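Hi all, posting the design record for the shared folder.

TITLE: backbone redesign
STEP: 1 of 1
STRUCTURE INPUT:
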């Protein structure tokens, strides 16, 4: 497996920890090419269920994980769709996709 840079591999391998990672969205009928999302996680996955917010019960929007569509590697700048056309599944983890993308696939 050839990665575009070390950072994308290291961040993907650490995707369950807080931080950012690039994840692939598999091709489907609507989108025949793989797409990519930048995933931001603010709390390690293994402890996220233990979090008791001091804001519980109040209506204050909080974000534990969020995603944004991206086209280029944030570390080295390659065009992801082009570089990972045949190897996108190296960046695939269904549990890391946003719920919208999970429903679509
Ligand atoms: Zn890269």
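Okay, here is what came back for every position:
SEQUENCE:
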């Amino acid at each position: 497996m050839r990665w575009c840079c070390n950072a994308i591999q290291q961040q993907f391998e650490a995707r369950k920890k807080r931080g950012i990672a690039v994840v692939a969205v598999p091709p489907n009928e609507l989108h025949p090419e793989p797409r990519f999302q930048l995933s931001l996680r603010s709390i390690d996955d293994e402890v996220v269920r233990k979090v008791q917010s001091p804001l519980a019960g109040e209506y204050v929007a909080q974000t534990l994980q969020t995603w944004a569509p991206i086209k280029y590697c944030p570390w080295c700048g390659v065009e992801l769709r082009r570089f990972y056309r045949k190897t996108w599944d190296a960046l695939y983890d269904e549990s890391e996709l946003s719920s919208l993308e999970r429903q679509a696939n």
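COMMENT: The mean pLDDT is 91.
Let me know if anyone wants the other runs.
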